[in-house]
Structure formats: structure tokens, C-alpha cells
């Protein structure tokens, strides 16, 4: 419209109408991302292909995982071609599945490695903030009794509410003042992550801030897990660990040299029951292969990635979202997720 001197109210109305039209024109000029089939994994891949690439079913990605982060992601600005939140989530899931940011950015045309890395960082932080909602020990006496019953059904070991073990997650040299505390006895940099598992192979406690040079017993001594048992929050429940942990009134370890049939039976029951946490670690790290490759991220970002994958792992357990390679390790634990009434609804 022509801009001219305003003589009456009709002219003002014309100006307002013109501004509205101008705003609509500018909005229409903002570039939009139109996903091709290959850029929309939900449409492009079959259910089995999607599950193998992103480690979750399509239904669980859309209806369980996406709502966890959708409202928390920042609204896209007017620069470039903003990705939809669902695609940001799938980009992060692809990274957790592969550990290769170059491969992830290559999967999505027009997304640089820097952009992909930033998205993974954001999604990991949002999921890590939900750790306390999805990773928790039994809170009530009824929950503890239920956990004890399920553990007892494994090999007849009474009173157990969780099993604990440590695993090393490779990281790059973190730099800083004392990088050597992150170098483990094998000579590479890592975080020694303490994980406790429930009877159905869910992760009920995780501590991941200690470097690879720290011994399992040292990590346990400084952990909230020890305080929970010391302060009897587990309602007389027991914790099982291997010989890397101290033998305590609530922490049972194997006997080094059994001398009787009773001691032999104890060791057999202990090993069979504690095997739950070893299988849990195996399934967790196979599902999210970024945990088996060196995390080329900052230390804080690496911590967020580890916590994010524990949240995702527990969601997969509760929703029975199994992968084919999980089934041998899961074994009888496959149908036991109903025991965890202390999970978030």
C-alpha cells in the first residue's frame, strides 16, 4: 500500500490493515524445514529398522520419550531451518545408539556436526534432570518387601533389595588440574560408574562423578547409596556386591575360600543373585553404544549423557521395549517389571 499523510480515522485503519498484511508477508518469508521421507525416520523406516537405529519403538518415542522433552526445548528462533523437537530427540537417540556424532549429522541432511552436538547436549541435560524421577531405590517398606520377594525367587537369597557393581565409561582426557585421577589401571581415561540394579534389571541407583582411578570401595564409601543403607532407609534390606566391596552388616560379598557345603551354597546363591547387576550393565551398554566408545565431550556433558541413558534404559525396561540382542541377558527378568511399583506413573 502507499504510505501517505493521514487525514482521518479511515486512513489510520488502512495503516493498521497494511501492517497486519506486512506481518503476514514477513512470516511467510521465514524459511521452514520440509522433511523429506529420508529425513523423517518415523515415516522412512520400518518398525524393526527404526528400533535398531534408535533403540526404541516408534510408539514409545512419540508417546513416552517426546513428551519428556517437548515442552522444555527452547522455541526455535527465526534463523536457518529449525528442527522439530521430535527430530531433535531422534538425533540424540541416534547418538546414544552409535556414539558417533559424525554419523548422526550425516544421517540428517543440512545438520552440521556442531548443531548435532548442541542438540545432543541439550537433550542429554533435559533427560539427566529427570534421573531422580526414573532412577530410584524402593522408598517404602512395602516396596522393599516386594523387591526382597523378587530377588528371593532368583536363587533363594533372602532380604536382598539391590545389587551393586562398577563399570568404566571411556572419556577423553578431561584436562584441568588433576586429569590423572580419570586414568584407570588399564591406562585410559574413564569414569568409574557405580550402578545398583533391582531384581527386574532396572537401574535403581547410579553414581558417575568419580574418575577411573578410584576403586569401587572408595566410590561406595562416598556414595548416597551407602548413606541410604547406613541410615536404614532400606528397611533392613541387603545389598550384594563382589569382592571389590567391603563386607558390612548390610553389604554381603562372596566368601573367598568356602570351607563347608553351607558356605558353598551361600556363594552359589550370592553369585547367581548378584549376576543381575552384571547383566543390567551389559544390556544398558549394548543398547546405548555411546557408553562403550570414548565420549569426546566435556566432562559435564559426559556426565549428562550417562545419566540420560540410565533414564532411557529404565524407560525401556518399564515399557518392555526390548531389542533382539537383549533377550538372552534379560532371561527371566523380562516379565518382572511389574514389581516396581515405586516407579513414576
Automatic annotation (TrEMBL):
Cellular component GO terms, alphabetical: nucleus
Keyword Nuclease: yes
Intracellular or extracellular location(s): Nucleus
Keywords (A to Z) from UniProt: Hydrolase, Metal-binding, Nuclease, Nucleus
Domain DDE Tnp4 positions: 164-314
Highest taxon of source: Eukaryota
Cofactor: a divalent metal cation
PANTHER family found in the cross-reference section: NUCLEASE HARBI1, PTHR22930
Family per record: Belongs to the HARBI1 family.
Name the record gives this protein: DDE Tnp4 domain-containing protein
